[in-house]
Amino acid sequence: MSEDDPGEQPTQEHQAPEITFDEKFYPARPKRFRPSARRSLRRRLADRLGGEEMADSREYVEWLVEESMLHDANRLATQLSGTGSMWQNPFAHPDPRAALERASVWFTAYPLSFVTRQGESYLAALADRGLWEAFRRIGIDAVHTGPVKLAGGLNGRRLTPSVDGHFDRISMNVDPEFGTEEEFRTLCATAAEYEGTVIDDIVPGHTGKGADFRLAEMGYQDYPGIYHMVAVAPEDWDLLPDVPEGRDSVNLDAETEAVLERRGYIIGRLQRVIFYEPGIKETNWSATRPVLGVDGVERRWVYLHYFKEGQPSINWLDPSFSGMRLVIGDALHALADLGAGGLRLDANGFLGAEKSAEEEPAWSEGHPLSEAANHFIASMIRKMGGFSFQELNLSMDDIKVMGESGADLSYDFVNRPAYHHALVTEDTEFLRLTLRTAMEMGIDPASLVHAMQNHDELTHELVHFSTVHRDQLFEWHGEETRGEDLAEEVRQTLNARLTGVRAPYNRTFTTNGIACTTATVIAATLGIRDIALITPEERDRIKDVHLLLVMFNALQPGVFALSGWDLSGMLTVDAASVADLIADGDTRWLNRGAHDLRGVPDPSTEGRMPAGRSLYGALPEQLADPKSFASGLRKILEVRGEHGIATAKQIDIPDVSNKAELVMVHELTDGQLQITALNFSAEEIAGSVRSEHLPGGSVLTDMFTGEELGTVDDLHTFSLTLCGYSGRSLLVTPPE
Fold first, then answer.
1. Domain 650-733, what fold?
2. What is the Cα–Cα distance from 603 to 596, expressed in whole angstroms?
3. Number of C-beta neighbours around residue 6 at 10 A
4. How much is the pLDDT for 274?
5. Cα dihedral sign for 598, 603, 605, 607?
6. What angle do CA 465, 471, 475 make, to 5 degrees?
7. Could you identify which of 510, 561, 611, 652 might form a hypothetical disulfide with 106, taking C-beta atoms 3.0 to 4.6 angstroms apart as the criterion?
8. Cβ-count burial of 532 within 10 angstroms (0-12 exposed, 13-18 middle, 19+ buried)?
9. Which residues in the chain land under pLDDT 50?
10. What is residue 404's predicted lDDT score, i.e. its pLDDT?
11. Vertex 423, ends 106 and 563: CA angle to 5°?
């Protein structure tokens, strides 16, 4: 794989054809053209207790087939094939603004952390009309449910737990721990009553070790084609490590990985090992124990997993196309059967892997197969009347390329660590660099999901700077700095300021980032070392900084997303309360504390995360207090919605007179200009703002208060004062 900047390579830009069909005249994806299908009319219930696996047991194999996702995918496809409703929606090109008009402010939920009443399921709680009333008052118009399908694995007929927060899906069934399929449909219906949308998940990159993987191990029909798995000849089994008692596979060390590559079994080491942990995960390959096949042949397999050992990777270019059929079937189920309006594509940047030159790592990131597969998945979702977004922690080059034909929206992995860096250093230089780089590369911020906290860590890998552009020189602190060195400095600064003795309540998460909440990032920034002793005054300071970060994310084009941890002002949980969960190094459980948005009098605790401390309280009491976080959030979103900032165009990130200041200039859909000005420091700042895009003589109006703040002079400049940790949204009215 060439490490050259793709931007320097000659390319022929694809020109979309002139629209000559109904997309030009009618709204995209009308509801009446949403196809529908049911996964099955009759379904066996899984025997969750006992039953040994036996490849020579016809009944057991039939049971696995009935439980498999590939089997369900085939059932769904037969109901939808040949129907006119499959041809009523445009699908060729991503349409981020159509998605934004449908849902631009998202609540990102997490099933294990959402507090429910006794006897109430997670999905039933999300459908609570009181909750949706609060969402409507605040300005939230979509809910991302998070993963709710059965996940983990199968040992015989016994379910084994999820190894990655339910992102190791093994079935299209909703996990009974979270509710039922009917409750999911009720949630979608309730959301529609409040003009909202429900966003579900699919995982194109891997599954768990469920029925599909067990059938693949047995060599049953085309199931091995679902995965990147290779049967090792018995005479080479001595190359494989022994599988410890009680386990079904073991991770390969680097030496074994290299030997198997030389023998022609696997493509060898990849560009990086995600979740690297010595003695636990040293490579992206694992070997199974001997497994008896349906043909009576015993096999040992070596399989690829980008993530954890229990997440075998899907093969998107196997001749059987079994993996593709499984993933598309999962998407059809969410859209046509359950009623979701959008889908998140998880781990969709890792769908292609190819052997490279000798001694070089395999090509596994930015691979054209990932682009092609994403185009395929996203087109099917649009064809079904939905939209999609991707969590693609790769370079901006990859985000741009995959956004041209793939998902409608992409998660903003670059600017999030940048605005946290601006906060902890009181210097927006790196944030201005990331914003300008995206603009120069032609990445439309309206196509991005600007998020606060979600279920994961604060990712600070900064892949754009540390991989593809590692040798490119960037202007940094007045000097030319290599991208790799710049990324490392930012990471080290974030780690030093947000973890360790300064903030023992936050922890690093392997090499990926920091396990924290937005509130604990702010607490560390403010010098608070013991979050158990936060005073009311400190809570109010945290709230004010939190609203500053809301303004950065919400007062620019694109989706604004926040979680229950943000709405409640949650702190990280005590490490002792999740000691078993973080024992293998997965510190993210610290930032996943249970939170109560509704003020439930009899909360259920069984099977849920331990509760963390909430600084802001439940939504009903917050909305009754005009000085609360939720009330402040509501005012920001009112300005965003009234002026259509979500669908605006970002046209300038001007230089600033104070390093703590950030200014973004946007062109609204009606042609007027809007300015977002923010102060990332505790001190009041005053100075001038200059942008060539500002017409001389224009009047500046505060969008929150309606107050006139002056005019733009003939040098395209105006004066502005910002209090500490505050921001303003300005409307620019040109002279008549």
1. Immunoglobulin-like (2.60.40)
2. 8
3. 16
4. 87
5. negative
6. 70
7. 561
8. exposed
9. 1-32, 41-52
10. 86
11. 20
